[in-house]
User: Which sequence fits this backbone?
């Protein structure tokens, strides 16, 4: 199975400041067809997960442009340019290049 | 808008069975693959099962293979998860999720664009 490793696991943030989460996969997520199957989700407290970013860097419909994704191969990053109070929750990366589709262990973002 | 509403969770004894349902609306159910994803209490997300849009292929996590069966009824816009031989470590909130992405040949590269609110399954004596 592909192991997804996120760092840090806990991230205290100050509103208005940037934040960054790393996700590393145990195998490359680059498909021979050129796509990279790496996704980011946010699970706000008491809610279901919601899709933020698909295929490394594409924001899903309605996702604010303060969220951005980058990376390639096995190393990926989610960045929040200016954290807002509504961004608290647990962020998960996920891969779907190979079964079973696996998630990172989650990064809990909270306001300082 | 897309709505996914799970039901059927509850408390079941080890070795027992349960069937979860997910009622879908707001999109053409018969055109999309669907998943079950679970989350044990205080833990992260674990993909459980996937069924293609037409039911032609089904995929399972090793942890549930042979015990869980995913199915769908497009006439009812409903996704199911039939769970048997339940164990304590199956205790979790079970989410259904609509898929995007694509399948080519025998391989699929999905992701989840909409999730239900989840239903809690507790396996305990």
Assistant:
């Amino acid at each position: 199975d592909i192991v997804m490793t996120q760092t840090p696991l806990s991230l205290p943030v100050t509103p208005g400041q940037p934040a960054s989460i790393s996700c590393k996969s145990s195998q490359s997520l680059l498909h021979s067809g050129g796509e990279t199957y790496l996704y980011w989700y946010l699970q706000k407290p008491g809610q279901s997960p919601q899709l933020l970013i698909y295929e490394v860097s594409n924001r899903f419909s309605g996702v604010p442009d303060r969220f951005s994704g980058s990376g390639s191969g096995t190393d990926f990053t989610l960045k929040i340019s200016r954290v807002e109070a509504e961004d608290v929750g647990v962020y998960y990366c996920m891969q779907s290049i190979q079964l079973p589709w696996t998630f990172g262990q989650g990064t809990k973002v909270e306001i300082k | 808008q897309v709505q996914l509403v799970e039901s059927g969770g509850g408390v079941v004894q080890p070795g027992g069975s349960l069937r979860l349902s997910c009622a879908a609306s707001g999109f053409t159910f018969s055109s999309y693959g669907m998943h079950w994803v679970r989350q044990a209490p205080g833990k992260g997300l674990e993909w459980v099962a996937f069924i293609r849009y037409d039911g032609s292929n089904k995929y399972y996590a090793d942890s549930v293979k042979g015990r869980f069966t995913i199915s769908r009824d497009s006439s009812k816009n409903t996704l199911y998860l039939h769970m048997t031989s339940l164990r304590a470590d199956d205790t979790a909130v079970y989410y259904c999720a609509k898929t995007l992405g694509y399948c080519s040949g025998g391989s699929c590269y999905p992701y989840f664009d909409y999730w239900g609110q989840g239903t809690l399954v507790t396996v305990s004596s």
About this structure: The mean pLDDT of chain B is 96.
